[in-house]
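Quarterly update, task 2.4: heme C-bound model.
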Amino acid sequence: MKLNFFAVLCFSLFSLIFASTSFAADAHEDLTNTSAEKCGKCHETIYEQWSESLHAQSTALKDPIHGTFYRAVVGDPQKENVVTKSGKYPVCLQCHAPEAAKAKTTKLDKKKIYNEGVTCISCHTLTKYKGTVKPDGGLRLGMKAYEYSKTDLQGPMGTENNREHHQKYGQDVVPNGGLMKTSDACMGCHDQRPNANKVSLCQTGAEVKVAGGSSTCQTCHMPTTSKGITSHAMMGGHMKEMVSSGLVLTLKAKKSGNKAKVTVILQNLLPHNFPTGAPFRNFYVKLNAFDKEGKKVWSSTKSHPMKDDKQAMFMYTIGNDKGPSSPPTATKVLGDTRLKPNETRKLDYEIKEKGVVTIKATAYYDLLLNPIKKKFADKLPAHLMKPQIIARAKATL
Ligand code: HEC
Ligand code: HEC
Ligand code: HEC
Ligand code: HEC
Ligand code: HEC
């Protein structure tokens, strides 16, 4: 027993020394292959937050939604030299697998770091944001929008204390608040992304530019936690509590003759669209009216607002002359009913049914539109298909 304990202790000590010397031996090493796991040895909390985030799941081998589209539009993420229909290196990797893009590979399982997605060094080596539009008007997206260092980490503060820590173990941490503390750290990948027909798929950056204001992406997406650490969880559409924080839903109801007049008020608190991001993100509102026994006497929709109550459906519709189509093939925008930055919208309803006493409104957020859910039903996990309740309101007559 005693001997065993001693052996374990010796082994742990040995691994500790081994681990730290292996790091020290890397002084001024090329950061190209530095895995998040290595940073995580010291930055444990940040590593855990990042591991759970969509940034760590962004590759075609990890994100089931992106993976399904990638295979359909581009090809096999485990093969080398995959090119698009027009013979080009797949642009997707510039944002979804930035380390693979830097190495100009398409075989994402060739090295661990290629499949780490948007990993620590993807952001912490960015030295300069050049913008997503080239001087000649063409686009440079993802990693192409940046200059980056191969040896020096970039930090928001770069205090002497922090730099000494890092120099002791290998790399310098250069102060680069101009990039790390501003939206420039995000815009290369989040500013805009058109499909091959120049139809916009994501345009969070452009939305924010319209809204103006001085809040950065970090203000909301990287809050400082109680431990004094900037959160790297990057919550967004996959976390209903986060989604909920951007929307205020209120309800007003009054009697008007034999009818009830109801107004739903929806306020977007964000400097970008609600919802923003991927073109199939959407939300909708359902209303129900009840009598004094609590029996439902009226509903705003019989099935789904997308079918029979379009004013309560907030979505982006892209397609072609024949109607809606999937994002990669769309040739034009057919409609956009998402809430614009900081917009307040009112929806009016008239209820003719008798005996209405209370009205309840519920807002649901959905990562995917129903036609896409149907198309990929057998390929996607159930939890990604389930609408989430993000707000409720109640009014009495
Ligand atoms: C051997 C331990 C160790 C390793 C490994 C390590 N760091 Fe650090 N790092 C520290 C310490 C200690 C600090 C200073 C206190 C703090 O912020 O936790 C620091 C500070 C930082 C800062 C803040 C710099 C600023 O602006 O003031 C950044 C950014 C950073 N590290 C990124 C990384 C990244 C990315 C990796 C992996 C490539 C990494 N670190 C690996 C120990 C480490
Ligand atoms: C190198 C490219 C890149 C950079 C830089 C980047 N992101 Fe992302 N981000 C992505 C990709 C790709 C996804 C989508 C992952 C997926 O769903 O497959 C994503 C997803 C997100 C999400 C969505 C999470 C969800 O639940 O859907 C948020 C929020 C986010 N990023 C915020 C930020 C912020 C804030 C910054 C700047 C501090 C930033 N990102 C910098 C590429 C990047
Ligand atoms: C999507 C880009 C992105 C990724 C990926 C990323 N970071 Fe950061 N990180 C930032 C930004 C931006 C800041 C500065 C936030 C601020 O000051 O508002 C930051 C701040 C930090 C800090 C200093 C602040 C603090 O709380 O101590 C450390 C340390 C750090 N990151 C480590 C890491 C590690 C380790 C990883 C990988 C596990 C990682 N980061 C992944 C963008 C990123
Ligand atoms: C005032 C807080 C706030 C600011 C500032 C903000 N966001 Fe958001 N963001 C949110 C909330 C809340 C959501 C969830 C609702 C939604 O999708 O609009 C969100 C969602 C997102 C998503 C997830 C979309 C998805 O598909 O899941 C991305 C990506 C994103 N924001 C990027 C950014 C970027 C980039 C910036 C800076 C240009 C930014 N945000 C600024 C609060 C904010
Ligand atoms: C300019 C950067 C960029 C490029 C290029 C890019 N994406 Fe994305 N993609 C993102 C970001 C950022 C998100 C997630 C956040 C959001 O919704 O805005 C995302 C989200 C997605 C999603 C939704 C994932 C989910 O979890 O719901 C799919 C699918 C997708 N991308 C497919 C692709 C494909 C396929 C390509 C290449 C043909 C591609 N993307 C190219 C940045 C990019």
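Highlight for this quarter: Residues 241-396 form a domain with the Immunoglobulin-like fold (CATH 2.60.40.2360).
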